[in-house]
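Bumping with the actual sequence this time:
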Amino acid sequence: DDMTIPWELAFDGHSYLCLRFGTVRVPLNHIAPTLVPAPQLDQWKALLLGNPTGDLGFATEEIDAIDRLMASHADQIFGRRVAKKLVKEKLFSAQYHLIHYSGHADITATGEAALLLAGREPLTAREIAANLKGNPWIVLNACSSAQTPSVTQAI
């Protein structure tokens, strides 16, 4: 129920959602959101996390390419430096408009979805939610990030 996201303008590569389906905005709380103007792209700050396990060379290239697009308005953290304590601090800082992760993800032994950081230490979705401040766009380019415990058990 996030009224600040223009869901009707989602584009699937062929058409916009609003052109394929009738769309209506009805907030559950019946209170109009306070919209904060988005900063210009040259004012965006990004947190780019890449290849924390050290075995995905393309992840480093991906982060470098995004950094070039961001005109170096990004904090890049690679490999073993993508440690849980540092990532949690960065999430809590609320200084980012975009957070991009390129690496592995998995389901923990307790059934929680998690990003695999340096040393294959899991950072669960619950930990991300507890530490994330602000409203950044988050992009996860991670193997198994769409996997659920039921899918894992079926495999």
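The tokens above came from a reply further down the thread. The first helix runs from residue 17 to 20.
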